[in-house]
Sequence to fold (271 residues):
Amino acid sequence: MARYAGVMSAHALAAEAAAVLADRTGIAHHDIALVLGSGWGGAGELIGEEVASVPAAEVPGFDSHVVPGHSALLRSLRLTDGRHVLVLGARQHYYQVKDAGKVAHAVRMAAAAGCTQLVLTNGCGSTRPEVGPGSVVLISDHINFTGVTPLEGATFVDLVDLYSSRLRALALEVDPTLPEGVYIQFTGPQYETPAEVRMAAGWGAHLVGMSTALEAIAARAAGMEILGLSLVTNLGAGIGGEHLNHQEVLDAGREAGPRISRLLADVVGKM
Fold:
């Protein structure tokens, strides 16, 4: 059922996907959307009661393939106050689809489904040795180093305070020790070279990864308020002295899973 934005406009496809989601879940309106990156998948069980789950491949605009450590489900959770959270397990990375519009499809669908707030999470490398594996960092800003954008035409979107200072303050109420940092998105799927990590650090980037920035741009364009949380799974290439691999990312996420899931659930409860 996957269809591309080239077949219809990106916003029309998002609206169609939201309609199918509402039909499959029985929930006409969602309030908060979560994108759960590497290591964050266990948070759903702590956030609220699952009302329904839908395989992403059955919703227009999604493909069935996923990266190890990610889910292929769209889940609807009910909070104790009656609001509904849409968990977007089917993140489409740019290195998979080579289409910024497809990367943005999930958050556009969430906006069309009624979500006004978005939490973006990821697993990433760190350019700061003192902020090592297992650390959770609030994203304060980003650098889009992909060379692409999910926006089309003369769509001029203000990205000041892209990662909401209000939502960051709420997260700090839950854990005042959370550091903040600037995230840079590379295209991947290869890990960055030591020289690229040094370049990123020189530009002021503290977190290095392959997601998040394109989704955040699309979400801001859709009028959503955004919170970004990164789990540091490794030190960037050339900083820790170790070779990098995806199993390391999965292992770090598994070890940190219970702690960061509780953190995320508590933050969502305050939103």
Summary: Residues 95 and 189 are 6 Å apart (CA to CA). The first strand starts at residue 32 and ends at 35. The mean pLDDT is 91.
